[in-house]
C-alpha cells in the first residue's frame, strides 16, 4: 500500500489509469488482508489527491468509488465496517455525497461494537462544519450512550462546537435537552473522590488561595492539537494547572 501510494503521488494518477479500478476490485476480495490493504491504499490516495479525484482529468472516479465505499458500512468485520467504510477521509472529497455518508454514520451510531460507535463520534466531529444542523440532534442522544468511552468521545463534539463562531446561534434551541444530559454525567470517579478527600484532609485548615479556586477552561482535542502544531506554548500558570490535573485520574463525563 505504501509503495503504491508513493508511486501514485510522485508519478500522478493520470499516468497509471489501471490503478484505481484494480484497487476497487480488490475491495471485494474474500481475503481480509487484501481488502484491508486495498482500503489503506485508497485512503491515502484520497488524502493526497482529493482534487484530481473529483475533476474531469480522470473522469471523476469518485462518482464510482464513493458508492463502493458506502457498501462497507455493513461489512461483517467491525474494523472494515468503520475504519474503512466509515472513514471520513474517503468520503469528504466527494462533497455531494456527504449527506448519504451522514445517514450511514447515524446507522452505525447504534452498532453493537463500542469502538465503532466511538469512531462514529470522531467522524461527526470532523463533519461539524459541513452539516452542523443535522448533527446536533443526533449527538445529544449519543452522549447518553451506556458505554462511558463512547459518551465521552461524543462530548468532544460539544467542545469543538464551542470553538465555532456560530455556536450560540445554533446551540440555543438544543440547550433544554443537552444541559440535563451533560449535568447528569458530571461526576467524579471513585479514584478522584479518594484523591480529593485526601487533599481536603491535608489542607482543610489552610485558607484557599487564588490558584485553588480559579476556574479551569478545557479545550477540545482539535484546538489543543492545533496549538501544539503551531508551536504555541502556554504560560507558566497553565503549566501549573496541568501539574494539578496530573493528580486526577483520566477524563470522565
TrEMBL record:
One of this protein's Pfam families, by short name? HEAT
Q: Which UniProt keywords apply?
A: Cytoplasm, Protein transport, Repeat, Transport
Listed InterPro entries: ARM-like, ARM-type_fold, HEAT, Importin_beta
Region annotation Disordered: where it falls in the sequence: 205-253
Q: Where is the composition biased (Acidic residues)?
A: 230-253
Q: Which compartments does it reside in?
A: Cytoplasm
What's the domain of life for this entry?
A: Eukaryota
GO (cellular component) term, any one: nucleus
Q: Which GO terms describe its biological process?
A: protein import into nucleus
Q: What is this protein called?
A: TNPO1 protein
Q: Which organism is it from?
A: Illadopsis cleaveri (blackcap illadopsis)
Amino acid at each position: 500500500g505504501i509503495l503504491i501510494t508513493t508511486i501514485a503521488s510522485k508519478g500522478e494518477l493520470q499516468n497509471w489509469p489501471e490503478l484505481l479500478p484494480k484497487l476497487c476490485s480488490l475491495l471485494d476480495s474474500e481475503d481480509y488482508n487484501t481488502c484491508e490493504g486495498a482500503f489503506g491504499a485508497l485512503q491515502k490516495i484520497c488524502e493526497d489527491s482529493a482534487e484530481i479525484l473529483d475533476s474531469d482529468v480522470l473522469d471523476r472516479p469518485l462518482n464510482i468509488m464513493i458508492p463502493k465505499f458506502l457498501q462497507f458500512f455493513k461489512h461483517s468485520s467491525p474494523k472494515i465496517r468503520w475504519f474503512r467504510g466509515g472513514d471520513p477521509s474517503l468520503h469528504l472529497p466527494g462533497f455531494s455525497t456527504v449527506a448519504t455518508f451522514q445517514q450511514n454514520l447515524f446507522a452505525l451510531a447504534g452498532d453493537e461494537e463500542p469502538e465503532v460507535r466511538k469512531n462514529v463520534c470522531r467522524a461527526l466531529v470532523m463533519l461539524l462544519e459541513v452539516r452542523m444542523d443535522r448533527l446536533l440532534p443526533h449527538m445529544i442522544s449519543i452522549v447518553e450512550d451506556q458505554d462511558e468511552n463512547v459518551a465521552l468521545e461524543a462530548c468532544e463534539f460539544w467542545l469543538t462546537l464551542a470553538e465555532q463562531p456560530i455556536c450560540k446561534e445554533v446551540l440555543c434551541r438544543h440547550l433544554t435537552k443537552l444541559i440535563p444530559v451533560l449535568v447528569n454525567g458530571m461526576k467524579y470517579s471513585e479514584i478522584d473522590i479518594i484523591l480529593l478527600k485526601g487533599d481536603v484532609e491535608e489542607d482543610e485548615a489552610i485558607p484557599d488561595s487564588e490558584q485553588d479556586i480559579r476556574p479551569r477552561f478545557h479545550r477540545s482535542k482539535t484546538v489543543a492539537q492545533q496549538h501544539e502544531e503551531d508551536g504555541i506554548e502556554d504560560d507558566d500558570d497553565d503549566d501549573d494547572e496541568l501539574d494539578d490535573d496530573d493528580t486526577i485520574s483520566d477524563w470522565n463525563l
